[in-house]
Amino acid sequence: MSEHDHHDEQSLVEEHSVKEMRSGLPASPPVTETTAHIHGGATRTLWGDAWIRLRKNRLALIALIWLILIVVAALTADLWVARVVGDPTTIDSSTAAATRLMSPSLQHPLGTDDMGRDIFGRVVYGSRASLTVGVAAVVISLIIGLLLGAVSGFYGRLIDAIIMRITDIFLAFPYILFCILILAILPDDMRGIGPVILSIGLLGWPSFARLFRSSVLSVKENDYVDAGRALGASDARLMFRHIMPNAVAPVVVYATMSVGGAILTEAALSFLGLGIQPPQISWGRMINDGRGYLISNPGLVFWPGIAIVLTVLAFTLLGDGIRDALDVKMKD
Amino acid sequence: MGDHLLEVKDLKMYFHTRDGVVKAVDGVSYDLDKGETLGVVGESGSGKSVTALTMMRLIAMPPGKVEGGYALFKGRSLLDMKDDEIRHIRGNEMAMIFQDPMTSLNPVYRVGRQIAEPLIVHKGMSRKDALARAVELLRLVGIPNPEARVRDYPHQFSGGMRQRAMIAMALACDPDILIADEPTTALDVTIQAQIIELMQELQQRTGSAIIMITHDLGVVADMADRILVMYAGRMVEYGTTDEIFYKPLHPYTWGLMDSVPTHDMTEKRELNPIKGQPPSLVNVPSGCAFHPRCPYVQQRCITEEPLFKIIEGSHGSACHFAGDPGFVRGEAELAGVSA
Predict the structure, then answer these.
(1) Which helix (H) or strand (E) is B195 found in, with range?
(2) Do A31 and B148 touch (CB under 8 A)?
(3) pLDDT tens sequence across B96-113
(4) Are residues A276 and A214 in the same domain?
(5) Conformation bin of residue A264: beta by default, left when phi > 0, alpha when psi is -120 to 50
(6) What contacts B333, CB < 8 A, 6 or more positions away?
(7) Is any Cβ of chain B less than 8 angstroms from the Cβ of A221?
(8) Do B114 and B188 touch, CB atoms closer than 8 A?
(9) Does residue A137 sit in the same domain as residue A283?
């Protein structure tokens, strides 16, 4: 515990033990090893404690580090990629013929593609589209799903029936086909990252709504919700303070894993030519572009493929880790 | 009307279910004054808890429906209040302690936060002040080292400590009425005694009235000023604690007393439970609801529902023969007729 970790409760504890020592009574044992990380430091919230537990989960931690690495690389790509491996977003027609389909070298660590662009650089740039689509689409689904699921589960009855039937209808849509349909009817000049996010996000919410509803339904039955009501908590307070925090864990886990799913969908749509449009780079698009060279130059397909697999896997492992970390009872 | 802190009159709460109408509370009346303790005694399903929950408006309606009667708190009708009015009373002027301390605390919040919550909600305290008060409250209910314990999660508390924390939560806003719904049922016997003692002590300090709901006459014997005995949603006997213990009027009350184990019990004397099961509330027996289990049953008991009648002072009973000379616990003759 460092000096600046003191807050009001912490200092209360210290005052107390000082008082005890002065009065000659046996001082309460100093904060012991097992309680130190629970009581100590600035982490006092559910999420703060969850973070402490997450840090102990090696797989989740590796996944998190990988994701942070990708995010940092994606955010800073403009600063260093072009300088290190050449601009991967443009085709230099004067040198393209000479530099195309090169094997890995110091200059091009993963080689070059059929247009002479650096594959490593393109994978780095491709992460932008994947991460943006993955996170933004899930956020859209999450907002709609949490809202509808909460209302549905909390109020029940007619509202519940109406919301759940709408959810059922949406669940009956063939997800990918519907995305394809939406994107296919768009005029070419409107295609791009925005419609991809919207179509994935607007079709993905039903599972969130269902999951959150069932979670709210089971949490609602807990005695502490009744106790909260008996102590005068309002509906909103019950929902946001007593039910939500207890019900949200499975949804957070599912959301984290869904980011991976959204990335896969984006890759599939871009592979089909309906998603991200050139000159924007996406991993799915790269696989599509490289599929003609699958035998002669498998690197064109392999590296963006590996990027997809690792990133999706990382989101899944992280989701798993968050689930364990949020389980208060698994502590210690 | 309205002179008492709490006045419940002929309260009826029915549940309309697929199987029929469940008369969970069927005409219950009592008064409660400041600083007083009322014991509500009865078997499981006798409507003890529902009576309290009805007053707090914590029964979901539908399926529940108030079919009659009223409940006045400081002269205001609890059953007609707007939602935000009753919400202001809950936890603030009337607080409740639940039966199972293991599940009545929210597992994701630290104990201190939860005790502080009613203070933040009702008294508009800042989080910091409320937490400081939570430490005081934990100390008041006898949690050692409350400054550290206030930051524990509920799962780090033992059952007895959790019930103490629940009591601290209920007491946070200095309520006029504390409703304890079998607060010791889930605890082991030694802890039970501690909790009862604690509640008595706190009552003396804060002057709040207590409604103690229990199935155990022993629990209310020391504590209650008055006792209400319920059976199948109806009140069968009501009186001061002395009246109930020394001059019980209803055979059901006699049965409850005979089934309490005592210290002077020799190996030979066996426990004397009330035979049979409490009735289903969908299909309440005709006449006196207790008649199938009553050893003194008469023809009249089967056909005619006994009215609750006052025998002496406030002491009353819903038995046809209450107050008859000779119809006294231990002396009444067993019935000649059978049901």
Answers:
(1) helix B189-206
(2) yes
(3) 888 888 888 888 888 888
(4) yes
(5) alpha
(6) B296, B326
(7) no
(8) no
(9) yes
Supply the pLDDT for residue A6.
44
Q: Indicate whether A90 and A18 sit together in one domain.
A: no
The amino acid sitting at B188 is D
Residue A18 belongs to domain spanning: 3-43
Same domain, A32 and A70: no
ipTM: 0.77
> B183: which residues sit within 8 A by CB, 6+ positions away?
B97, B98, B99, B163, B166, B167, B195, B199, B212
Does the pTM surpass 0.95? The reply is no
Q: A182 with A94, same domain?
A: yes
* Cβ atoms of residues B89 and B78 within 8 Å: yes
CATH of the domain at A70: 1.10.3720.10
Please indicate whether, in this complex, the C-beta atoms of B118 and A231 are within 8 angstroms of each other: yes
Closest residue in chain A to residue B119, using alpha carbons only = A231
Show the low-confidence residues of chain A (pLDDT under 50): 1-43, 331-332
DSSP-derived 3-state class of residue A21: helix
d(CA B61, CA A197) in angstroms, rounded, equals 43
Tens digits of residue pLDDT in B34-75: 888 999 998 887 888 888 888 888 888 778 888 888 888 888
Nearest alpha-carbon partner for B293 in B280, B307, B279, B283: B279
Q: What phi and psi values does residue B194 have, to the nearest 5 degrees?
A: -60, -45
Residues A17 and A61 in one domain: no
CA distance B204 to chain A (A): 22
What pLDDT digit, counting tens, does each position of B290-317 carry? 888 888 888 888 888 888 888 888 888 8
β-strand pairing of B94-97 with B20-32: unpaired
